[in-house]
């Protein structure tokens, strides 16, 4: 009986993980396998073919993928530039104001994603709040809906908390004695930041970049509402093939190709961070 009890305790962790494993298999691996299979199936005859992938590798489809890669990278790095100073201030300089400021930083998580986009739609339209303010200042309106600029602004705003929180969590756990030691050794503040704070915050930067880059690449709602029909992105084209054209083969093939491209971009960003900070403690720490 005692031996059975010890065996059960050893295997308990496995049995606890079984529901999560089944969830991953049913709702991640099985749909992924079906998507790969549909990409090789012809809608006309139901036979295996490479025609869908031959069609994908043309100028129009590649242009849409490159546009999505560019917008996702630009969104991620601009969000990093905006979020890092805010996270730094909240973690190391806010003092007694940390709790209320964190509350306001978390408010976007409580608001429906679609509501946020519609709010920006009314702000960015030609007669919206921003262009009306520009009119009072004598500035002609230059940011309107149905433009790449509008899509970019709203994507940065909506994904900013996903960059802010990981960086804040890393900086909040930073040992301030290291900063004091650097100062005591005669390093100016800018050198302390570059040689101590920034390298130790790389895990948060890496997490934030991936959390923004991956969903921004396949974003559909923001381009559909603010980009118009003239600005097609990966999510828009997948929606078109799946729900408008009803061409599951082309939709699956395009999803597979764009997913491989996204994986390559994510690996490139990760490798770039390791190349820049690979020799530091923060760059090696997982």
Brief descriptors of the model:
MetI-like fold, globular, single chain, 14 helices, mainly alpha, 2 domains
What does this structure look like?
The chain is mainly α. It has two domains: 39 residues; 234 residues, MetI-like fold, CATH 1.10.3720.10. It is 79% helix and 0% strand. It contains 14 helices and no strands. α10 packs antiparallel against α13 and α12 packs antiparallel against α13. The longest helix is centred in the first third of the chain and has 38 residues. It starts with a helix and ends with a helix. The C terminus is likely disordered.
Q: How are the secondary structure elements laid out?
A:
Elements: H1 2-39, H2 51-56, H3 59-92, H4 98-110, H5 113-124, H6 129-136, H7 148-172, H8 176-184, H9 189-200, H10 202-217, H11 221-227, H12 234-244, H13 248-277, H14 281-284
Helix pairs in contact: 1-13, 3-7, 3-10, 5-11, 7-10, 7-11, 8-9, 10-13, 12-13
In short:
The protein has 286 residues and is mainly alpha-helical. It has helices at 2-39, 51-56, 59-92, 98-110, 113-124, 129-136, 148-172, 176-184, 189-200, 202-217, 221-227, 234-244, 248-277, 281-284.
Percentage of helical residues? over 70%
Structural shape: globular
CATH fold label of the largest domain: MetI-like fold
CATH architecture label name of the largest domain: Orthogonal Bundle
The description of the largest β-sheet is: none
Number of helices: 14
